[in-house]
Amino acid sequence: MSLPSPTAPLETKYHQDAYRFIYEALHHTQNKLDRSSSLNDEEDAHITGQELMHGVRELGILRYGLLTSHVFAHWGVHSTGDFGRIVFDMIERGEMRKTDRDQLSDFFDVYDFEDAFDHNYEIVAPQSDSE
């Protein structure tokens, strides 16, 4: 997936912030995987649905910490499949692009929100200089 525009559609099933977050998570994931969207070859910048969902998890935890699942629920997002529907809404509106291999099912059951954001959340204590 790649993005030509950061704008979200006006009438959507999900909160506008969920659309903006997907856009930001795509860039976060591309940067993390060293696949810049400015590359000439779109294939080289392509992010799969599963890769994007792992970027969503990472960025969500970085931004919202233990509140991630609550923020996503406020947006109407309760599963990775919901984020997939957002991506495909954006593709349909011309705000994202996909390859022939990309499918909505790529986003289903990538991880469980409760496990990813609540049960497996780790708090890392900063190390003091004397240790």
What does this molecule look like?
The protein is mainly α and 131 residues long. Helix content is 49%, strand content 0%. It contains 6 helices and no strands. The radius of gyration is 15 Å and the shape is globular.
How is the topology of this model organized?
Blueprint: H1 16-32, H2 42-45, H3 49-64, H4 68-74, H5 80-92, H6 113-119
Describe the structure concisely for a colleague:
This protein is mainly alpha-helical and 131 residues long. It has six helices and no strands.
- Secondary-structure element series: HHHHHH
Radius of gyration from CA coordinates: 15 Å
Please report the number of helical segments: 6
According to DSSP, the number of beta strands is 0
Helix content: 40-55%
Overall shape: it is globular
Features:
globular, mainly alpha, 49% helix, 131 residues
